[in-house]
Design a protein that fits this description.
The chain has about 260 residues and is mainly α. It has 13 helices and 2 strands; from the N terminus they run H-H-H-H-H-H-H-E-E-H-H-H-H-H-H. The chain folds into 2 domains: about 110 residues, no CATH class; about 130 residues, no CATH class. Helices cover about 65% and strands about 5% of the residues.
Length: about 260
């Protein structure tokens, strides 16, 4: 199988699992395939998944021509940073290059992007968050001092993610300004996204969606996935959570 077929097979197996079934796999997709097919490179599994989620035919074409998976995943990340399409970043990457000569006579052709450097981060939030995160992490580590380090790191990661998610949820709520219009199809779509059964008309959604959303946020957080992180997918988790929360409040949640 080529890389694309492998990526589709890997994702299909993973996304048929409910959040509860994924819990034993600490590192998500990589852990799952390490157990079920140890011959597969965990690094390649993660990079293939990042490319699959990008949904860029041109990038897949380059991978099948021989582009390293890591390079393809790096281009996806760079396109997000630059605020451009993957096709545009791929074109910039392909437009320039240079030869590196090694002492033993080997030569390697390398590409370099001609894109301008990314703009500096908006000071509104990034600097403050870096400071707050450092403070919170320090406090949490002191509170957990003396505990088994293998237990501390996952707890610490979850804690930081939860704080950041709380801030993001507040920012989204302020943007909504309290406006909410019910759409049956949106309720169904949000339920499917968070792996819960859509409710009957007029009935609340099972509170399980909040637990599932938290698990998905943990699995798909940038701190865990690195270059494989999919920002739009991560935002959709919060959007689905917010929508179902608003829906349940509107109809008078009883669960």
């Amino acid at each position: 199988m080529n890389h694309r077929a492998l990526a589709e097979e890997e994702a299909r197996a993973w996304f048929t699992l409910y959040p509860e079934q994924r819990k034993p796999y600490r590192h998500g997709l990589r852990s799952y395939w390490k157990k079920h097919d140890p011959s597969r490179s965990g690094y390649q599994v993660v990079q293939r998944h990042a490319i699959l989620r990008a949904k860029c035919e041109a990038l897949w074409a380059e991978v099948e021509k021989g582009m390293p998976l890591g390079t393809a995943a790096a281009l996806i990340h760079r396109a997000r940073v630059q605020g451009c399409s993957i096709e545009e970043e791929l074109q910039r990457y392909s437009s320039g290059g240079y030869i590196t000569n090694f002492g033993d006579g080997r030569a390697m052709y390398k590409h370099k992007s001609t894109a301008p450097p990314p703009p500096p981060p908006v000071q509104e939030f990034s600097v403050e968050w870096a400071t707050v995160r450092t403070l919170l992490e320090g406090l949490a580590r002191r509170a957990l001092s003396g505990e088994d380090i293998t237990n501390v790191e996952p707890l610490l990661a979850n804690f930081i993610i939860d704080v950041k998610e709380g801030i993001d949820a507040l920012r989204r709520a302020l943007k909504h300004k309290g406006e909410f219009t019910v759409s049956r199809q949106k309720v169904i779509n949000a339920c499917k996204f968070l792996h819960v059964q859509p409710p009957k008309p007029g009935a609340p959604v099972s509170a399980e969606f909040r637990k599932n959303a938290k698990q998905l946020r943990y699995e798909h957080h940038q701190d865990r996935l690195g270059s494989a992180y999919n920002h739009e997918y991560y935002l959709n988790i919060g959007r689905a959570l917010d929508y179902l929360d608003a829906y349940n409040k509107m109809i008078g949640e009883t669960t």
